[in-house]
């Protein structure tokens, strides 16, 4: 099934399940900077709602069809001690839903990029990573992420799945699939800031819930000077225009205040057409060799 058919099925699924999409936008491969994107088909004013997503459409361990057994994973003392990323319940849920042909999220999951087209450095060959990332400061971080993902699969995810063979099998729910889902979560998930100060993620009172997959919201591409922002409500999530958007423009969310090195590490791309306002250069200064004359 081609991309257009998958997209059509996804949009029908969204409509059937209560997602409200503004008539001023369209989801398309055309006019997007990368894969699918959202394009304005009419002028949009700042503050307008672009789409509303009922919370029932979010894919989380709690909404998954195996939420019952995943609760035992989350409450397991050994899991709580060993799990570092906090992603394992969601990754296990995604592995199950992704391999279940009758999954409620099937039209959504059919849009996941195939593993052989993912651009994150964790999917590059080891030699390629060392060659291309040498001197960037992120090579060690990528190697650490790969090692951590492999350890969590072997020490937590697979032992848990092996206890529930009615849902999982060694032939289908492999380390490669776990890495694929980890890349999906890394690049497309959202984490809700549950504090009252939604725009201040560094607030001492802010507490973060686990990551969630948010259909439609994750179709928007990133730019640091974004023109849209996702707002979390009690019953629904709303993507709101934060700038006036002209007809024909692509609608961009932001993945956070990320420098190009962070974008490359987690998403496999950098901002190059416009300056990334979050870029920085670290310089190590040696006190004995630094002089300044007034």
Automatic annotation (TrEMBL):
Keywords linked to the UniProt accession: Methyltransferase, Transferase
The keyword Methyltransferase belongs to this UniProt entry's keyword annotation: yes
Stored InterPro entries: SET_dom (IPR001214), SET_dom_sf (IPR046341), SETD3_SETD6_MTase (IPR050600), SETD6_SET (IPR044430)
Gene Ontology annotations of biological process type: methylation
Family annotation (PROSITE patterns): SET
Pfam families per record: SET (PF00856)
One GO CC annotation: nucleus
Matches recorded under Gene3D superfamilies: set domain protein methyltransferase, domain 1
GO MF, one example: protein-lysine N-methyltransferase activity
Name of this chain's protein: N-lysine methyltransferase setd6
